[in-house]
C-alpha cells in the first residue's frame, strides 16, 4: 500500500487523519519520529485500510463524523484521539494542505498535556441532534415573529414586546385596520402566522421527545435535582459531556463553557476581563437563563446549600455578573453530579466541585 509520496519505512506508531467529506488524508509516524507514509483513501475504504495496520494511536480533529470514525477505529483495536482544532493549529508547518494538516494532527496527538475530546456514543449524538433541531426551530420561529412585526411597523402599527401580545392582537389588528393594510399584505402576514403555528407544533414535538428521554435517563434524573436544571438542560449536559470524564474538576467544565473571565496576564500582573465565551454557546445560554430564573425568586434562596453565598454575592455584584457567577456554580455542581453519580442535596453542597 505504499505510494510515491511515502518518505520513510517501518510500521507507524501514530497516524494523523485529516477528515474530509469524501477523501481522508493519512500521515503515519514511526517510533523514531519520522514519517513512514502519506496516503489518501476514500471514506468507504477507511475500515479496509486500517484493518491492514497494526494497532496504533490515531489522531483526528473534532469535526463532523469524527465520533463515528473514532468508534470505527476503536472497534479495530486502534486508540483514537479526537483533538480540538484550536490545539492543532500551532503544529501546522509550511503551507496549508491536507497532508500538512494530517501531520500536524499526528504531532498534536502525541502531546501528553493536551485535553482530548471525549468520544460520544450514538445515544449522545441522537440526543445532541434533538437539541440542535430544537434550537434551529426556535431561531426560525423568532425570525418569523420578527418579520410579522416588521411588516406591521411598515404600516405604522406597533405591537408591544412579547410573542403572546402579538398573537393575541394580530387578528384584531388585521380586522380593524383592513382599510389601511392591503389584501396582499394581509395574506402574507396570515401565511407567516401559519408558519409560526407550524413551528410551535414542531418545537412542542421535539421538546416532548427531549422530556421523555429525560424521564428514562438516570443521569438526567440526577441532574434535575440541581436547582434550575430541568429536562432541556439536563439532556443537553448529558449529550455534551456524558459522565464528565473529560474534565478533572468542575471548574474545568465551567471554563470549557466560557463562564470564567478572559485572562490576559504578563509580568506577574493578572488582568481579568469579560467572560471568555469559549466552548458550547448553547449550554452556556441555557445555564445563564436558569440562573436568571433562580435570581427572580429570592424567597427560595434559603432552601439551597449555596443560598448564603448567593445572598452575599447579590449585595456586591451587578445582576448580570451575578447570573454568570451562579451559572458557573450550577455548571460545577452539574459536573459533580454526573462524575460522582449522585443526586444533588440542596441542603448540602457537593464538596468536589
Task: Describe the protein in words.
The structure is a single chain. The protein is of the alpha/beta class and 353 residues long. It contains 13 helices and seven strands. It has helices at residues 46-51, 66-75, 85-88, 98-109, 122-154, 163-176, 183-216, 218-223, 231-241, 250-256, 281-295, 307-314, 319-340; strands at 14-18, 23-29, 35-42, 57-61, 79-83, 261-263, 272-275. The strands form two sheets. Strands 3-2-1-4-5 form a five-stranded mixed beta sheet. It has a two-stranded antiparallel ribbon with strand order 6-7. Strand 1 and strand 2 form a beta hairpin. The protein is globular and about 80 Å long. It starts with 13 loop residues before the first strand and ends in a 13-residue tail after the last helix. Residues 1-8 and 349-353 have low confidence and may be disordered.
Contiguous runs where pLDDT drops below 50 for at least 5 residues? 1-8, 349-353
Order of helices and strands: EEEHEHEHHHHHHHHEEHHH
Largest sheet: 5 strands, mixed
In round numbers, the mean pLDDT is: 90
Give the SSE map.
Elements (H helix, E strand, L loop, with lengths): L13 E5 L4 E7 L5 E8 L3 H6 L5 E5 L4 H10 L3 E5 L1 H4 L9 H12 L12 H33 L8 H14 L6 H34 L1 H6 L7 H11 L8 H7 L4 E3 L8 E4 L5 H15 L11 H8 L4 H22 L13
Parallel strand pairs: 1-4, 4-5
Antiparallel strand pairs: 1-2, 2-3, 6-7
Helix pairs in contact: 5-7, 5-9, 7-9, 10-13, 11-13
Could you name the key traits of this structure?
353 residues; alpha/beta; two-stranded antiparallel sheet; disordered N terminus
Question: What can be said about this structure in brief?
Answer:
The chain is α/β, with parallel strands linked by helices and 353 residues long.
Amino acid at each position: 500500500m505504499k505510494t510515491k509520496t511515502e518518505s520513510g519505512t517501518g510500521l507507524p506508531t501514530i497516524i494523523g487523519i485529516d477528515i474530509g467529506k469524501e477523501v481522508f488524508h493519512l500521515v503515519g509516524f514511526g517510533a523514531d519520529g519520522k514519517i513512514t507514509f502519506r496516503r489518501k483513501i476514500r471514506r468507504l475504504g477507511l475500515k479496509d485500510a486500517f484493518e491492514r495496520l497494526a494497532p496504533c494511536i490515531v489522531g483526528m480533529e473534532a469535526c463532523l463524523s469524527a465520533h463515528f470514525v473514532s468508534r470505527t477505529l476503536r472497534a479495530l483495536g486502534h486508540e483514537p484521539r479526537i483533538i480540538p482544532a484550536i490545539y492543532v493549529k500551532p503544529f501546522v508547518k509550511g503551507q496549508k494542505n491536507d497532508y500538512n494538516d494530517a501531520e500536524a494532527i499526528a504531532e498534536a496527538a502525541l502531546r501528553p498535556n493536551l485535553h482530548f475530546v471525549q468520544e460520544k456514543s450514538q445515544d449522545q449524538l441522537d440526543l445532541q441532534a434533538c437539541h440542535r433541531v430544537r434550537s434551529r426551530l426556535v431561531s426560525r420561529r423568532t425570525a418569523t415573529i420578527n418579520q410579522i412585526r416588521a411588516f406591521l411597523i411598515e404600516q405604522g402599527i406597533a405591537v408591544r414586546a412579547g410573542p403572546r401580545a402579538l398573537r393575541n392582537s394580530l387578528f384584531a389588528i388585521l380586522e380593524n385596520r383592513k382599510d389601511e393594510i392591503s389584501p396582499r399584505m394581509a395574506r402574507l402576514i396570515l401565511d407567516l402566522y401559519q408558519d409560526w403555528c407550524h413551528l410551535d407544533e414542531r418545537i412542542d414535538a421535539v421538546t416532548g421527545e427531549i422530556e421523555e428521554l429525560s424521564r428514562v435517563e438516570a443521569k438526567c434524573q440526577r441532574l434535575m435535582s440541581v436547582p434550575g436544571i430541568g429536562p432541556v438542560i439536563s439532556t443537553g449536559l448529558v449529550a455534551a459531556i456524558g459522565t464528565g470524564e473529560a474534565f478533572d474538576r468542575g471548574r474545568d467544565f465551567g471554563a470549557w463553557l466560557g463562564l470564567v473571565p478572559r485572562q490576559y496576564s504578563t509580568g506577574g500582573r493578572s488582568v481579568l476581563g469579560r467572560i471568555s465565551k469559549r466552548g458550547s454557546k448553547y449550554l452556556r445560554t441555557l445555564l445563564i437563563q436558569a440562573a436568571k430564573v433562580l435570581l427572580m425568586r429570592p424567597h427560595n434562596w434559603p432552601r439551597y446549600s449555596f443560598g448564603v453565598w448567593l445572598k452575599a454575592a447579590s449585595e456586591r455584584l451587578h445582576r448580570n455578573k451575578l447570573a454568570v457567577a451562579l451559572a458557573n456554580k450550577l455548571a460545577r455542581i452539574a459536573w459533580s453530579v454526573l462524575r460522582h453519580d449522585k443526586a444533588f442535596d440542596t441542603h448540602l453542597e457537593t464538596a468536589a466541585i
